[in-house]
Prior knowledge:
Elements: E1 3-8, H1 12-27, E2 31-32, E3 41-46, H2 51-63, H3 65-70, E4 75-80, H4 81-85, H5 90-93, E5 99-101, H6 108-114, E6 117-119, E7 141-145, E8 147-148, H7 159-163, E9 167-168, H8 171-183, E10 188-192, H9 201-204, H10 209-216, E11 224-227, H11 237-245, E12 252-254, H12 262-267, H13 274-288, E13 293-300, H14 307-320, E14 324-329, H15 348-370, E15 377-386, E16 389-393, E17 405-408, E18 420-428, E19 433-437
Parallel strand pairs: 1-2, 1-3, 3-4, 4-5, 5-6, 7-10, 10-11, 12-13, 13-14, 17-19
Antiparallel strand pairs: 8-9, 15-16, 15-18, 16-17, 18-19
Helix pairs in contact: 8-10, 14-15
Amino acid sequence: MQNIYLHSLGCEKNTVDGEHILAIAERNGYNVTNDANDADIIVINTCAFIEDSKKESIDAIFNHTAFRKYGKCKRLIVSGCLSERYKKDFMDMFEEVDAAMGIHDLENILKAIEKDGFHDADDNVTYKEYVDRVNTGSKHSVYIRISDGCHANCSFCAIPKIRGNHRSRKIEDIVKEAKNYALNGAKEINLIAHETTFYGYDLYNKMSLPSLLEELSKIDGIEWIRVLYQNPIIIDDNVIESMFKIKKVVPYFDIPMQHVDKDILLDMNRGNRGEEFYKNMINKIRQFDENAVIRTSFIVGFPGETPESFKKLVKFVRDTRLDRVGVFTYSKEDNTDALNVDKKQLSRQRKEILREKLMRVAIDVSEERLSRFIGKTLDVLIEKEEDGKLIGRTKYDAPDVDGYVEVYNDTDDSLKEGDIVKVNITHNTEYDLIGNYVK
């Protein structure tokens, strides 16, 4: 039996693709290994969202060629967004690779194992379902993709050209997958897509995220339902209300705003609603629950960004007390409309300086905002034990991207991974909370 090893890069959506690839291989007689040294087949599942992610993917490909040249590996295969994005020239660009495949039919992994070259498939009109996944993460907290592709066509983003148009999964298929995870011990499900708020429009002729959440909330064993990647242009009162009224949905809003200056938002093809619109949305959310978490991402250094527009961004982060902020520097991407924005370009060095400035402000705000939990008792999902203490997350923390809770247990109770326990919060750092288990 041949061993297959996967090295996956990029976002959670890419992780899901990689897990489907492993399941397809396993179902067809291959053994999944976590050790590249022991692999007959190595698959590099790449990302190509921005320049840095492309570089990371290329580095990973070349780093794994050593296993092909000197180790047990007989097949080096590339999948994911990088191979899809540059499929016309990919095999010429990477002569060290035996085979590559696009993203629209993951069953092509079987062809890639057997035959050299690029194995492609037409873009799917509907979401392609796969039988199962090999879960490479926690069994207690899992990601479930509810759609693929994107309809938004933001001027800076290559995702629609890579992944195609928005394609939703059927509610019954998502619920079936979630039930299977619940039976295997999942306590938390995290709904992912390139844009979750647009879910269902292509299938049901209406935004159907609330309907999906209603069905998922009925599943026994699932305690927390988290919705990631919400488009601020689409999120409306109905979605906001459903996030608070539907049982088990956690008060966590992941809303990439990208900027607050109206002119820049117009050039980004993200409307021109700007800071006042966003402030009203944030106030509306916090009127339901003042502890609700709002996570966002911003792009600095977009063509035409001025000192004045950057100051707007800094002031907005301070004024709205955003809980979590990620900052990206603008990256010129092939075949994106932002390349046609005829405005001043900032140097890479200047963009990095702006990023650091905004991040320093965001970190200060995050630390101040976290202090509201001191003295409160919160539910914490235990994830692991590390250096004599337990590490977990509250419902206010998304996996992999947010902070943790350090849990100290001075009782005789034995706590284990997957338990949801009461913790009295005593301290906080910039990103993390510290507290004591309450028996």
